[in-house]
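Dear colleagues,

As part of the handover before I leave the project, I'm documenting each prediction I ran so the next person doesn't have to rerun anything. This entry is a single chain, and its sequence is reproduced below.
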Amino acid sequence: MSDLNEQGMAEELPRISVGEVLRTAREEKNLDIDDICSYLRLSHRQVLALEGDDYAVLPEATITRGFIRNYARMLELDAEPLLETYRSLSASGQPRPISIQSENIRIPGNDQRPWLIYIFASVLIVLLVAAWVIYVDYIPKPSSEVEYVPSETEVEATVAVQEVAPLQPAEPLLLPADAVTEDLTAPADSAAEVGTPAATESAPETSVAAPSVASAGQAVIKLKSSDRSWVSITDKNNRNIFDKIMVAGIEESVQGLPPFQVVIGNAPSTTLTFNNKLVDLLPVTKDRVARLTLE
């Protein structure tokens, strides 16, 4: 009689739905699937598979039996009948490979994004270099020629020369218009005694340059500049006989007793003639300022 009861129970076990028992017990305790997932550390998909008897999506039988046992204990159920039913429904004992959810698992070394960053940076550098080459070689630049302005060094040199030489009235370089007129209308024999031909040029309204022929014992300095420059000249007696900013294209003539101390700003743009001999200013020029002695 007992053998018949055991055989009947064995026939009824396969008809028990493990998932149905678990779902019913869960609902009776007013628990939802999220509660089960949080307590058992299972995914939402695994809990639904247990309650739906969908064992194909679950891991191998050993792990699945652990899921059923823990689920039954949580719901305060006897796990053995459920496990026996699962054994009868599972495969014939052939082990199934363990399936692990691989979603959101990053495999080191397969991320290609750093290479994209390097490629983008390299392309950007090449473009910047190309733009710089085009700008330097092909885009016209504004003219760098500017009006010459004496530098602080040149101004200090002029001030130093003026401090060394005592301030005394310089010899007049410009003559009044009426005096020039009288000289031009003087007799021819007077012009011969001086040694210069009679001048017939018309005088400017204000003044004219002093004669370029030196008196006895004096020397003549002629200056001409192709750009703005300044010149300071002192004679043998340390008198400042010329201190002036020259305008481009205008020739100046100075005479006095040598030796002369000469300071020229913007020397590369200035030519100097001493007693009709051109003087090379390059050897005595430093920072565009020439300093020399004429004897």
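Residues 113-137 form the longest helix (25 residues). The two ends are 153 Å apart (CA to CA).

All the best with the project,
I.
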